[in-house]
Each structure stands twice: as C-alpha cells, then as structure tokens.
Amino acid sequence: MDITLQPNGAFHSALVHLEPGDQFKSDSGAMFRASSNVDNDVTTISRGGGLLAGLKRLAGGDTFFLSTYQTTGGGGGEVGVAPVLQGHVAQVDVESSQPWLCAGGSFLGCDGQLDLTPRFQGLKGMFSGENLFFMEVSGTGPLLVGAYGSISEVPVDGELVVDTGHVVAFESSLSYTLSKTGGSWLTSYLAGEGFVLRFEGQGRLLVQSHNPREFGAMLGRRLPPRQG
Asked: Which is more confidently placed, 125 or 99?
C-alpha cells in the first residue's frame, strides 16, 4: 500500500494505491473516486466490536459505518478519500508500541490491519467541547487524519495547553486534563475564552488551526430563522 497526499489549496485529499491483498478502511462517505476493480464493503464491524463500536463512533463525531476497500481480479487499484470539511490531510505512521487517539471526527482512514477502538473520555469529553469518545488506532501501518484548516505537529515534552476544539490526534503516551483559561471557571466562560486541554507527558500531538464548532456557532447566528 502506498498513500499520496494531494494538497490543493484549502481542500486536501489522499490517493491510496492498493496492491492485491491490501485492505484500506475509511469513514463511510470519505471516498470520492475509485478504480473499477476496487470492492467496497460497508459495515459497522471493526475490531472494536460490532454494533456497539458503531454507536460509539457516532458519539465520537465519526460516521456510524466503516468502508473497507480491496482490489479484485488480481490487479492493483486506487481509492481517493477526503474529509468533509475543507482543510489539510496528514499521514501518521502508527507503530505497534505506540497507539494514537483521534479526536472528534478527525479519523479519515487507515490500513486495514490497524485496530480501531472507541475510547470513552468521561466527563472531560462532555464539557471540553471535544467528543465523548476518541478513536484509538493501534497496530502497525499508515493512518490518515483530516482537519478543519491546517495541521501542525507539536512535540510535547512536559506540558502543553491547547484550546478545546483544536485537537486532531495524539500519541497515547500523552494524558490530558480539562482546565480553565481565566482566574476562575466563571470568568473563563464569560470572557468567551472557554476551556483548554492541558496535555502532559512525552509524545506527538496534531492540532488544527480552526475550530469547526466555533465556526458552526458563528454561522448559525447569521442564518435567517426557519419558516414554518
């Protein structure tokens, strides 16, 4: 399997080249083109556990279904995938010794041999503006993540503060807590700064430059009221 990232202004995508025997899985609906000999199997089943895993993925901001692609007829083929929102796509090479966690809807696709397991984030996921479930990706192989805006990789060695809604993915060696930006929880909220995630440990963190929730809230206030 070989993956070619295709930057095109604000609208990034990826082209996945499959050899016979390769499998690639993605969020259902991420595919925008495919070779005629590529078979697409849509399912809720992942190694995270069937129907329940699909419901957890839905609560985590991903789609309910997964699509699995492989070629037929003994030849190679290709699949093009892209995120829903305009922004960058990044490839992470996951190693067996270090799983990654994908935040709210950032998972785009991965090697079919990687394991996907929704992980409950507890109350900090509910109040942080992130999602209740993060997607843990483990094994060995390439992982694709999408973002709203540009993606930056930040090495963490100690502590780093990230505004909520800007986390794309991070290594499981990092832990995080929900924190406030102002002197108190109330002043943080009233000042419009909201809350932050305070990461600790040593590992890599991917962040996105824009917050889709904030954009959606701003856009919603400017839309005319529904009629009827």
From this structure: 99
